[in-house]
Amino acid sequence: MKSWPSPSLPDVPGDGAPLHLHDTSRNAVAPVDAGPVATMYVCGVTPYDTTHMGHAATYVTFDLVGRVLRDAGHEVRYVQNVTDVDDPLFERAARDGVDWEELATEQIALFHEDMTALSVIPPTVYAGVVESMPEIIEAVEGLVARGVTYTLPVDAGTPADEGGDVYLDLSTVPSFGSVSHWSRAEMMAVFADRGGDPERPAKRDALDPLLWRAHRDGEPAWDSSVLGSGRPGWHIECTALAVEHLGVPFDIQGGGTDLTFPHHEMSQAQSDVLTGTSPFARFFVHQAMVAFDGEKMSKSKGNLVRVSQLRDVGVDPRAIRLVLLGQHYRSEWEWTADLLDAAEARLDAWTRAVSLPSGPSAESTIASVRSALADDLDSPDALAAIDRWVDHALTRGGSDAHAPGAIADLTSALLGVDPRA
Ligand code: 5CA
Ligand code: ZN
Questions:
Q1: Architecture in CATH of 314-415
Q2: Is the pTM of this model over 0.90?
């Protein structure tokens, strides 16, 4: 699938520091230690009600990861999916009386406009489910061939050998639980809300994930000679795309904390039995939830602030990006109008300072920004370092004629904000 245009990435003199990130599966901050090509998979949108500030926070966080890795000398191979086949998309299309494919197409275009406005570097591979169906079907068939699945009839009267719903048998996966480390009670508490079907009769384990859903009237379906007609479950989409486009284990699996369980736990479980290799990813990195009106911002609750709504009323997308960067990715926070006002004032000060003919030396600021970001993406600390240079430039001035341009290049390359007017 076509993605969006890349922002310009100026050179910053010297080398960035090696990136350290928090890994959910170890519950610790550790050096990423990637090879020359760092590999990252970030879970993409289900294309409806996009792009809200929670989505934007997630994609800006992993954009920052990519920028820091590039600055430290790595090439970045970045895969992102689009969940353009799944129940929530079909349900929204049915509710609104629109065609699901049209809804997806329109929302994907809006997401691209928002990502472009927010200066997010596009992924190397950007893949939807519809266009990736052969690889996804091959992954489900591979699991069936390994004998780790079982099939339930669509209704009790249909024999299972006429095609049915295929589940992964989690008892065949020794590593299950090693991403989230949640107790069974914790898993059961969220499973149904997060796309699972614990109540389905005859499942061997209530938590077994659906790999293939046999065709039902009114639902789109694809053909497989092994599985019959149907469509893939949610988690296998990301397993198949990561295995296909990165290979396992890859360096960083990203997404919001709402994906820790079941999505990333199941993605790894499926990959481990499919490939015979564990783990799925060396780091599982999770963006904390962004709230609005006192609750997690979510499509199902409808408490959304969309990037496009703010753009439509003339808000500078650089100010939106500065709001997002002003929060550490591992802290939950709530969107407010005051945060946007403060970010607009910050952007204005940065613009005035980088427009000066000279300023104080940029050298120590470059070093501070690099070390803040390498330390588990401390973007608030990086912004504070820029603020100190800006404050100095505006109040006391400086004699370095290269410094204003060097600071603008620094914020453009590492933070994705070009303050030049
Ligand atoms: N298509 C799946 C992933 S395979 C999905 O979760 N789509 S989504 O549209 O619901 O979310 C897209 C991304 O935004 C996911 O990484 C999700 O974890 C993240 N996200 C959703 N809501 C929030 C929020 N309130 N705060 C932070 N991140 C969020
Ligand atoms: Zn995913």
A1: Up-down Bundle (1.20)
A2: yes
